[in-house]
Amino acid sequence: MKVEINNPMTSSKLFNFNAQLHFFNVLSYVILFGCGISIGVILSFHLQNFSLDLHITQLSLTTRSASPLAPPPPPPPPTSQSFNPATDHVGLTEFLKPPQVMHGMDDKELLWRASMAPKIPEYPFDRVPKVAFLFLTKGPLLLAPLWEKFFEGHQGMYSIYVHSNPSYNLSEPEGSVFHGRRIPSKEVEWGNVNMIEAERRLLANALLDFSNQRFVLLSESCIPLFNFSTVYSYLINSSHSFVESYDLEGPVGRGRYSRRMSPQVKPDQWRKGAQWFEMDRHLAIEVVSDQIYFPVFQKYCRGACYADEHYLPTFVTVKFGDKNSNRTLTWVDWSRGGPHPAKFLRTEVTIQFLEGLRSGSQCLYNGHTTNICHLFARKFSPDALYRLLKFAPKVMQFNK
User: What phi, psi does 46 have (nearest 5°)?
Assistant: First the structure.
């Protein structure tokens, strides 16, 4: 029988080998565990970044979808080739050009625009001062043929504005100086304050033309007593306006004053005069700009108080008395009595009668005595037109 003998050296080597093998196994597990942790940490970090980027991307997309679309870019500025100086350039000429007579402004807008006045007295353009003829009428201008003769040959030296009843729809024939000269109008009643509103409306429309220097109010029954050259020179060279103003005792003078007008209008300031005025540009601007005295007349001058006989005489005397002549340039005849002046028929129009109107009185003009005191006269009936046209070349010298 063979006996097996244990060798101590062999057992020791075997133990050492097993120990080393166990150590390497443990080390392998440690290394694998460490690698696993490292990989997990790295993956976790990357996943967090990916989630954050995804959240930001979703939030950005949500915000963009919720916000309104951006407006389109503005169109490019016009190039020099698209600029047309004839139509696109706005210079002084275009600025000075008055609007069409039949415009769309209401009274408030019109008066505001007309109240503008340059502070520099010198005009930066060649200005020919014009006379604005303001016709306040009920309907047609039946004496228009006489005025046509008066204006003939003087284009560029006058302007015409007509305020008629809105119910009058007929128009003047083309070629007439009155064609297309009617302004936006409102109804006017005799003795009512809307008469002054119409006068201010006429003034305001005429003030839109910077060349208009003098303004004269006329009716459909007025006639000129002199030719255009004489009238133009008389008005343009005058240093005063012509608004009749006087103090009159009695019921048709001071008796029309209302104490409710105080303190704007005091009893000693109350004046009376004819409504047919003539004034310079400065005074016309002040009249359309008045927001102190006119509202008082609108409110309290009613009934027996005729605003057209008291507003301008009072306003001008209080504010600009030193620049007013206190007389009218329009002759009328009150000798027959009654609420209206006399009306002259065809048979009353003679050469002697017209000559008397032209030089039958004396007055002051620019500080000097003259016998030319009235440039116009009223009231003339339409049936007097034939004789007026017949006598005009000789008496009024319309052919000069």
Answer: -65, -40
Phi-psi region for residue 188, left (φ > 0), alpha (ψ -120 to 50) or beta?
beta
- Look up residue 342 and give its two tokens: 């006399």
**Gap between the Cα atoms of 215 and 52, Å rounded:** 83
Alpha helices of 7-100 — where are they, by DSSP H? Answer: 8-66, 85-88, 92-96
**What is the C-alpha separation between 161 and 373, in angstroms, rounded?**
24
pLDDT along the chain (400 residues), means of 10: 44 51 58 63 51 45 47 59 60 78 93 93 89 96 96 96 92 92 94 95 97 97 97 98 96 94 96 97 98 96 93 97 97 87 94 93 96 97 96 85
pTM for the model stands at 0.78
d(CA 181, CA 102): 8
Residue 304 near residue 342, CB atoms below 8 Å: no
CA distances from 223 to 156, 177, 325, 381 (A): 21, 16, 22, 10
DSSP string, 363-385: EEETTEEES---SEE--B-GGGH
How many residues does this entry show for the chain?
400
